[in-house]
Structures are given as structure tokens and as C-alpha cells.
User: Fold this.
Amino acid sequence: MVGRLRRRLISFRISEQYLMKTLLPTSTAGSLPKPVWLAEPETLWSPWKLQGDDLIEAKHDALRLSLDDQRRAGIDIVSDGEQTRQHFVTTFIEHLDGVDFENRKTMRIRNRYDASVPVVVGAVSRPKSVFVEDAKFLRAQTDQPIKWALPGPMTMIDTLYDDHYGSREKLAWEFAKILNEEARELEAAGVDIVQFDEVNDCAVATVEKAAEGLKCETAVHICYGYGIKANTDWKKTLGSEWRQYEEVFPKLRSSSIDIISLEAQNSRVPMDLIELIRGKKVMVGAIDVATDTIETPEQVADTLRKALQFVDADKLYPATNCGMAPLSRHVANGKLRALSAGADIVREELSRDLYYGDERSEP
Ligand SMILES: [Zn+2]
Assistant:
């Protein structure tokens, strides 16, 4: 066992083609809290506190602070913390043609709650890039690998009323094409990993379409949502074991997507479901975003050790369960540090196995 792991680690170390030089590279699922001077904290869809050029400058300042928080915490793959977006789905859709945000319609969201949503009134298109300037700005601030999150096609559909296509599949496909345009420009701007945030019953073919032709790494993040009340209430109805991943994982395993991001901390997702994506890189959520309690490094390490039963060490990427936008900055920073420290513990254990491992323990 140890011998096998050692060989795996050695092959990891000498391989030039890996994006990361670090074993167990840490990252967040995406969003981080915004500073109080930019938007009301601990709320989704919080209105901006500034306007015009002041707002643009403030968003960039917030992005730099968010990057600094990640860097100080020791996060290896950094992001923009989604500081320039009001909401991870809506902000992208706002930049598209064909969607009416004025005359909304009420729709049941994922069978959980009613919401007044924008309406698709014509052919959807992307007149110009949405996040590419922000990605260039982030790229200019750091040499670390950067990950950029986009909504997945099905996630976008779930927040809209369709009055034009009359087919969810058709609309999803159109969004996938638009996402692909944006993703290619993000890649050209120097993004190392493009991530699509999707629902757990997503159509894998549409995600593949969104990622088509990309030479950078691609990831799909599938989780059980932010720690907001509508989600935590819904989770209570799911029973003792959450097996929703069981449906989609075999399809993702045979897909072109490189990395699967999932939640595992304080989750009722059985860890052995990860076996269904054996061979893929896995971003394992080792931080619960639905509680203010900051994990201890040992709790994080424990989750990572469990995941290592099903993921090869060179394919395990410690992460957060989901975005941390709804948390306070103090709590989110504590969780970032815990993630980093927990990954350090397991790295240390793996390198001890590497240098002092005993071939006699080989089965
Ligand atoms: Zn999530």
C-alpha cells in the first residue's frame, strides 16, 4: 500500500505536465465575503454601496483584498473571490441579450422556494465578454494558479422563466455555447482552471459543450448549495444518506472534464461515492459553509484522509464545500486558514510515508 503510494508520489513529482507543483493544492469553491464598504455583508444579492467609476475601483480593491486573504491563509489556487459579482448566476446573465430583467415572472426554484425571475424573451447571446477584464486584473496581481468560476448551463436555466425557446434542452445548449465563448477568453486571459458551477442533476453533455476546446484545466462544481435557509431546510428532507451524486458521477467520469468539485464536510454524502469518479481529479469540500463554526485543522485533515481512500494523492484538491459569500469575513478567513493547515497535516503524513515508508507493508 505504502509502496504503491510512494511510486504514485514519485511519478507525481517528476511529471512536468502537472499544473501544480504542490501536493494537495488548496482552493475555495469560489465566492468569498465582500468588504462592508462594497456591499451589505452576509447577504446574497446585496446592492452595491457605490456607483460608476467609484464602484469599478472599489470592486478591484476588494478583489485584491480577497486575493491577499487567500494568500495569507496559504491557499494554493486562488480566485477573485467573486468580488465583482452581485450573484454568481445573475451577474453573468445580466450581461446577455435576450433576457428581460424588468418584467419578471414568479417561478418555483428547484421545488424549494418561489422567486421572481427574469424572463427569456428572445435568442440569447453575449454581446461582449463578461468577466475577462476582471480575470486579466487578477492575473496581473499574482503568479499563483488561478481558478475562475462560471455558472453552469443548467444552473442558469434554473433561475429563468423561458418564454422563447420552449425547451430547456435547447436553452441549456445555447447557454453552453455562450459559456464556451467566455471560457475561451478567460483561458486566453491566463486563467488556469475554468470551473462551472452546476446542479446535481446537470446534463453532462452541456457542461462538456461549455468546456469544449479548452486547453486549460476544466472543473465542474456540484454541491448542495450555499448555507442559506431555503437550502438547509431542503437538506433536512433528503434523509440520512445523500446519494444524488450517484446518478451524475458515472457520466462525469467518462466526460472530458478534468476536475470534479464536491462537498464532503459535515455532509451526508457517503464518501465512497467518490469511487464512481476514480481517475478524475477531485476537489473535496473539507470546509462546511453552512455554519459559523470554524473547523479545526485536524477535522479538515480527517476528511481529507477519508477521501484518500478513494482518490489518489496526486488527484486530491482540498477545497470548501461551496462559496463562502454569505459568511462574515472573520469566519471565512478562519476557515481558509483551517483548510490550509489541515492540508499541511496530510501533506506531512504523505511525505513521511514517502521517505520512511516500508515496502514490507506492501500487500
Ligand atoms: Zn456550491
In short: The chain has a mean pLDDT of 89. The radius of gyration is 20 Å. Residues 29, 197, 221, 223, 322-323 surround zinc ion (CB under 6 Å).
